[in-house]
Amino acid sequence: MRIAIVSDTHGVLDHRIERLVAGCDIAVHGGDIGSADVLARLQPRSGRVHAVIGNNDIPHKWPEHDRGLLARLPELARVALPGGELVVVHGHRLPANGRHGRLRERYAGAKAIVYGHSHRLVADRDAEPWVLNPGAAGRTRTYGGPSCMVLSASERQWTLAVHRFDLVPVSRRARTEAAPAAPRG
Q: What ranges in the chain are assigned the alpha helix state H?
């Protein structure tokens, strides 16, 4: 089973990551989603998407018509996979110093823990459970370009592939189209 792992899209999902997700069986999003459109564009083969809210997933930052979905998103997701459990949290409620140790203590029964928040791509497989941060899958603070992970899970073995894409500049036209009109006067 192939699981796409993304986080910190803040309303924008990189098209290359969207294509990668389409080749996976399920997708997980570690929070700071930004809109229902991002979750709709995460289309793994099974259609199963597990997402948690982040500290920026609050009503006034989401489009008004998406707020019903926002209210239904959990802070924690537990995903049963072949060979173990994947826990998904945003991570903003834990201090950065010692975060991995605290996550391992809190979710000791998991095979791996996914978190976001820092936008920093990290694959800490030095101990179990693994602690994974896929980095930012959108355009906000990508630290080198949008990134994600693909976890391959079987009853006998889990493997991880890390994907980082070059940051493609937004064209001047796209910036102009995306920007609200300046007030006149």
A: 15-22, 36-41, 67-72, 99-106, 172-178
Per-residue pLDDT tens, the chain, 185 aa: give them: 999 999 999 999 999 999 999 999 999 999 999 999 999 999 999 999 999 999 999 999 999 999 999 999 999 999 999 999 999 999 998 988 999 999 999 999 999 999 999 999 999 999 999 999 999 999 999 999 999 999 999 999 999 999 999 987 765 444 434 444 444 44
Residue 89's H or E segment, with its range, is: strand 84-89
In this structure, is residue 51 part of a structural domain?
A: yes
User: Which residues does 61 contact at the CB level (< 8 Å), separation at least 6?
Assistant: 34
Q: What is the CA radius of gyration of the chain?
A: 17
CATH code at position 35: 3.60.21.10
| Of residues 167, 127, 133, the one with CA closest to residue 149 | 133
6 three-state secondary structure: strand
Rounding to the nearest 10 degrees, give the CA dihedral for residues 173, 40, 138, 133.
180
To which residue do tokens 């099974």 refer? 46
Enumerate residues 6+ apart whose C-beta is below 8 A from 148: 4, 5, 6, 17, 20, 21, 134, 135, 137, 163
Global confidence as pTM: 0.89
- Residue 173 domain boundaries: 2-178
Domains contained in the chain, number: 1
